[in-house]
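Hi there,

I know you've been waiting on this one. I reran it after we fixed the sequence typo, so this is the corrected version. Both the input and the resulting structure follow.
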Amino acid sequence: MAAKKIKGKKEIKIVNIVVSTALEKDVPLEKMAATLPNTEYNPEQFPGLVLRIKDPKTSALIFSSGKVVCTGAKTLEDVSKSILSIIKSLKKLNIIVTIKPEITVQNIVASGSIGMSLNLNYLGLNLPNTEYEPEQFPGLVHKLKGTRATFLLFSNGKIVCTGTRTEEEVHEATDKLIENLTKLLNK
């Protein structure tokens, strides 16, 4: 038996949104690192500057070309606030960003529960597109066919979903996962 139903339902929430954008301005990273707090810049190890933003709690990688990767936001509203915070920081250095940066979601990470206990050994053998090596990691990795989503499944029914780009995709993929698991169990 691969799973047993528990009283409960799907619960999933977004825990991290990764986005990229371009400010269309060159950014003097050394000046930024010397002037602004909460920055890390070590060009010998990595060409980008890390800016930690306190509210909302996010981090941004900023490159001299003006390209930015922002991570840590839980909502798209927090993403926008973080990008505005970066633009305000640059304004302090007399770098005026005149465009409204186009934000591209690269990845959404969500976690939660599907409300059922899972027999990962059974699923590892019978669920396609899976990797399960319990000696190395206690979760089963499942690439959901026909989607961008990849899931980590744990025996207690907890899940992590990654690879999606919209909240709708997260929920569609999770529903499809539950449907696939239910079909497999009712064979």
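Quick highlight: The CA atoms of residues 127 and 184 lie 8 Å apart.

Best,
R. S.
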